[in-house]
Amino acid sequence: MSTVIDQAKAARAAAIRLATVSEDVRNQALEAMADGIAAASERLIEANRADVADAEKLKEAGELAPELVKRLILNDKKLEGVIASIRSVIALPDPVGHTLDATEISPGLELYKVSVPIGVLGIVFESRPDVVAQVASLCVKSGNAVLMKGGREATRTNRALARVIVQSAARVDGVPEGWLHLLETREEVSEILKLDQYVDLLIPRGGNAFVQHVMNNTNIPVLGHADGVCHVYVDADASAPMAVGVAFDAKTQYVAVCNAMETLLVHEAIADTFLRAAAEPFQEAGVTLRLDERSARILADYPLAEPAEESDWSAEYLDTKLAVKVVDSLQEAIEHINTFGSHHTDSIVTDNDDAARAFLAGVDSASVMHNASTRFADGFRYGLGAEIGIGTGRIHSRGPVGLEGLVIYKYIVKGAGHTVASHTDGGGKVEYTHKPLDRTL
Amino acid sequence: MSTVIDQAKAARAAAIRLATVSEDVRNQALEAMADGIAAASERLIEANRADVADAEKLKEAGELAPELVKRLILNDKKLEGVIASIRSVIALPDPVGHTLDATEISPGLELYKVSVPIGVLGIVFESRPDVVAQVASLCVKSGNAVLMKGGREATRTNRALARVIVQSAARVDGVPEGWLHLLETREEVSEILKLDQYVDLLIPRGGNAFVQHVMNNTNIPVLGHADGVCHVYVDADASAPMAVGVAFDAKTQYVAVCNAMETLLVHEAIADTFLRAAAEPFQEAGVTLRLDERSARILADYPLAEPAEESDWSAEYLDTKLAVKVVDSLQEAIEHINTFGSHHTDSIVTDNDDAARAFLAGVDSASVMHNASTRFADGFRYGLGAEIGIGTGRIHSRGPVGLEGLVIYKYIVKGAGHTVASHTDGGGKVEYTHKPLDRTL
């Protein structure tokens, strides 16, 4: 059995070849993957049955949450979804080979900035086995090799899926060997973190602690977010009914996700009206409110109330729980968000355009919103076509990241024997022109 | 005296404010900096004289190279250059506030992707004091706060320059306090490396060992290059005179820089003709050739010949020294470059377009060139207007990096109370439209 370092080296070699593969061949490989999964559906479902049986035992022993077992199941319907998702990736525009810029350096010397794959990605995710196919298809589409690891509970399913994907893609002429490697143990993931020579970008998709662990233990750039502490700020000039609608959606539409609201900030001028109006739907939805002193006074009768502590301002509940704070000003809200938030997604509700402008400019988050629910911060909803992850860093890509986050560029210079010595800054006579060129490579 | 962590916190606070400062105010701050330096020239030159006097003593004691003393000197003429360089930054297009993309998510719900400053940069460079002004001006232009450290030999000059810059910029209304901090010790640099909570991007400009040290000791993303092992490959179908011209320029035009050629690869079919033609100019320029067996046989009479060892293929000489290897094929050349090179800049000389295409696609470097000297890989020569550094990573920016490497984007969503629950994927009726919008924010 090959070691992780061998797999990483093979992925690096494959990446260099994959970077030169045409869009047509990459799309053919995706077609082959979709067809291969369809043809192998019985085998895949059988492998999954074994994983699910083990997981059921763990569930009965109280060692695995029921939702995780449910998410693990791969049946005909889910496989149809997997296949449809691969086909939708085929339909996406090619992120590779675009001329982003073209400049004449001097007569006859041309510079092109062209989008290329990043190289080798390391992607680690939790138990949902359909992610194997999703990640594989985004990597093929963008010309990147990948080392991936799924959840332990899905080992047999992931292995069967990866095998079908690799074998199907290999049937297409021009697809290099070794572009996908499935890792199976935590030790292998720890190994990857050290391989900055071979792995260009890590994408950990999972819990807070895991993502933080990855970020703290590698020199490889990481695309991800440890926390999703999102805010809705209800401004003095908000329409109270609109604010209730947005806040309710941001908190309750789906609580277990990173773009759900965790802290609600309310301007003191509207606190009374707004909080009383919001209490009814929140109570119906069973939302526990962690209230600061001022909001506690207003919502003295709220049955699911608890006093907020300092730690609530940076808590990611991922649950029907919400921290609430009354603020004196827009500026206080912005500062609270920049101090306690996670730079993920934050929204202001207001009819005042100046307040909105100040919030959108002053809040230092990947997504900032005006009169909209934080739940919209998502690759599909943003129209990116696919989402590889959500990043809260400030380099390369930020917020929901689609295929464009899996490419970088290279500079291509074409001359006719040009030398610096012949140019003015090298002591020669040729002048730099730096004219934009209206052409692609 | 404030600690590094206080300075980093102050820089983070300043960055959030600086991100909202208009282009007009940022350009006024640059004007004020240029004027301030002009007005303070006597004081600056005096501070510099003290640094230079100390450096002369170190030189006499053999502890500092004569070139370093020369580079340290700040006189009227150099200050004019500094001032002109700040004014040229004013003239550059604003990298901030561009709408990169605009999409209608659904009726009345709009998504804008807008360029914004990265935040807080950590920039460490060697003794040239004019870099203080250059870095400060690029940071102001791009709206980034900065923690910077220059060379120890220039301590007094850097301190005087930084003070003038900060005081001048502060005279402009709207420029926040604390956007520039000058660090003075290595211990402070070590401190910065740990402050990933406050510093968003590190740009180490210096020797190989230092850059590698930074990359290995921080969780903060690093823009830089440890090595510049650049290649020229002379293909079988090259014009020998053109190849001699390109190779000579790439090696000798300026040897002490990262984009100078360090290894010359020659196809065996042209090796005899090309190497004999190249020998004369290389000999005149005093270039020592580290020859592999085959090239040594051809250049048996070359007076400055030495046998190449395995370590030569990854050596960055930064000197009049060149490794030479004869290869059997274009493919061998590409593989050699991808294996031993530093992914910086590599050039093919050939009249064969297929060979050029294969090389440009297959060589995995930030800049790849056809019939041009590697020495062109430079921000000024590429027409970027300014260069903050050269990167060999594969994330965010690559190759020579100008102002566009100092920005990222944020997503801004504008709605009218939109909720996910009202949309199709939330159980409602509103359909996503994902129509491109022809407008800026």
Structure write-up:
2 copies of one chain form a homodimer. By secondary structure, the first copy, chain A, is an alpha/beta fold. Chain A has 14 helices and 17 strands. Chain A has helices at 4-18, 23-39, 41-60, 66-72, 76-90, 130-142, 155-170, 186-194, 208-216, 240-252, 268-284, 293-298, 330-340, 353-362; strands at residues 99-106, 109-117, 120-124, 145-149, 180-183, 201-204, 230-234, 261-267, 288-291, 305-307, 321-327, 345-349, 367-372, 389-391, 399-401, 407-418, 435-436. Chain A has a 7-stranded parallel sheet with strand order 10-9-11-8-7-12-13, sandwiched between helices. Chain A has a 4-stranded antiparallel sheet with strand order 16-2-1-17, with no helix packed on it. In chain A, a hairpin with a 7-residue loop joins strand 14 and strand 15. In chain A, helix 3 runs antiparallel to helix 7. Chain A is globular. The model of chain A has no long low-confidence stretch (mean pLDDT 95). Chains A and B meet through helix 10, helix 14, strand 13 and strand 16 of A and helix 10, helix 14, strand 13 and strand 16 of B.
